[in-house]
């Protein structure tokens, strides 16, 4: 019996989902099927969500905010990045290929990394107030490996990762039906549905906590103050 009342107050949060499928629209994406579960839960709480299928956009490869300044003729990433900048929650989703994340997912991580040296309004790294999660689909093994790669990358560049911030579906070991294929059992998987729901609520809880608290406290993580000589209680033996 549920003795915990449903919390409120998620209105105003924004979430962006990136689908790293290799299939351009309007081809159906199995990853979209899993994303929809999470988006529907968020939108029921008044959260504004957006889905970006990266393969539909001319996103240049590279680790700079605008690759047009580094040899590329075109780059749509600068037009997409404001969705990340304004979001409280970023979910990186995609398929498994050869046991690893897709090339589109890897490109997204690299372009997020391009902004990791920027600062937010508190003087912290740009992604400090944001929460990150991960959804993986496929029909062979590799969910945990892919999730580790994504979640490590997100926390390394400043995202906060709540408990159980990943979910996925791969079906039985070995090649087989994909998530949305008829008879796959994917949409009916209680394990996947539970983990996706838990992930979504944990993202919502953490995003609300950070928003209401004004983000991660700034003391101890301000790069410009460190550069200026502030050491935030770091005890350097060389100065003894």
From TrEMBL:
It comes from the Bacteria. Residues 14-164 form the NADPH-dependent FMN reductase-like domain. Pfam families: FMN_red (PF03358). SUPFAM superfamilies: Flavoproteins (SSF52218). This is Multimeric flavodoxin WrbA. It comes from Arthrobacter bambusae. The lineage of its organism: Bacteria, Bacillati, Actinomycetota, Actinomycetes, Micrococcales.
